[in-house]
Structure formats: C-alpha cells, structure tokens
Amino acid sequence: MHYIVQLGAPNALDGMLSAIARARTQLTASVAKEYPNRQIILTGGWGAHFNQATRPHWFYVRGCLTDEYGIDPVRIHRTINTSNSVEDAALLLPWIRPKDQLTVITSDFHVERARFIFSCIMGRTQGIDVQGAKSVDMSEDERKSRHDHEGKALTGLRLQGGVLWDDVLFPMP
Questions:
Q1: Which CATH architecture has domain 2-171?
Q2: HEC readout, the chain
C-alpha cells in the first residue's frame, strides 16, 4: 500500500488553518489527485502548542481536503492525534508494513528532519519520500528562525544516534 501522510501544523482557536497548514494541505490534495489510489493519513491532535482549538488538527485538515479540494473522505484511511513529528512516525509505525510506501507531506523547512525521523522510526530509508510544501507568507526573520531550529534539532538527533521514543532509541538505518 502507498500512503500520503500529512504532518500536523498550527491552526487558530476556531480551527482556521495557518498558512503553513494550508500549504501542506494543498500539497496533500495535489499529490492525492495525481495518485488517486493512494490512501491519506492525517496527523495532529489538540492541546499542543500548535492547536488550542476544541477539535484535533486533523479534523480541520480533513474538512479542507474534502470540502475545498474535493478529496473523497473514503480516501482518508486513518487519523492520528499527535503533537510532534516523532509522535507522528512512532504512532504510525504499528499500522505500516515494511513494504508500504510513504509520501510524507510537511513544510520545506522541515523536510530534512522529518526524513531523518521517519527513517529512524520506520527502520529504513527506502519507500519514504518526504515532500515539503513551500512556506509562503513568512518573514525572512521567521524563516531564519525556523531554519535554525530545524538545524539544531537535527544535529541533536544525530548526536544521540537516532530518535528516542518511549525510552527506546531508534537508530538511523
């Protein structure tokens, strides 16, 4: 099976998707329309720093995909309440078989770290394609801040030898 996995992003209290979340959702819709046999998995919970709304982030993304982009809701295979990229991969792991293919949708500034995380957790690099939605409406300062954060976070993961989840180290394959 081949899955499109959209990672969570910020939304407003009323559920309105941020520019980052909208860009990811647009890329997910584009990939889904290009490959109509691929199932979609949405991540992102609530209560986390990126979503203080009353419903999980994936709920708002699902609505956008089906209402605005015309994606058949039947294609949304699974939704997972998560609050970060490590949780995204770790909580997805029990549902993914070794031969399954993943197209992971994130933001352009997060591609390298997301690829590292998913490769470690899944125990492989083959069959994992990470695509980054172009970050728009972002100031140069914000872009630099995000880039710096991603670089430091990725360096930290590499220094610890992989991704730590639930007291287990998942090393880079």
A1: 3-Layer(aba) Sandwich (3.40)
A2: CEEEEECCCCECCCCCECHHHHHHHHHHHHHHHHCCCCEEEEECCCCCCCCCCCCCHHHHHHHHHHHHCCCCHHHEEEEECCCCHHHHHHHHHHHCCCCCEEEEEEEHHHHHHHHHHHHHHHCCCCCEEEEEECCCCCCHHHHHHHHHHHHHHHHHHHHCCEEEECCEEEECC
